[in-house]
Amino acid sequence: MAALRLTDVSFVYPDGIRALEKVSLAIGEGERIALVGPNGAGKSTLLRLMAALAIPTEGAVEIVGERLTKRNAERLRRHIGFLFQDPDDQIFMPTVWDDVAFGPINMQLSEEEVKGRVAEAIHLAGIDGYEQRVPHHLSFGEKKRVAIAGVLAMRAPILLLDEPTANLDPQGRKDLIEVLRSLPGTVLIATHDLAVALELTSRVLVLKRTILYDGDFDTLLEEPSVLGQANLELPPLCKLMVEWRNRTGKKFAIPRTVEEALDLLDES
Question: Under DSSP, is residue 131 helix (H, G, I), strand (E, B) or coil?
Answer without folding.
Answer: coil
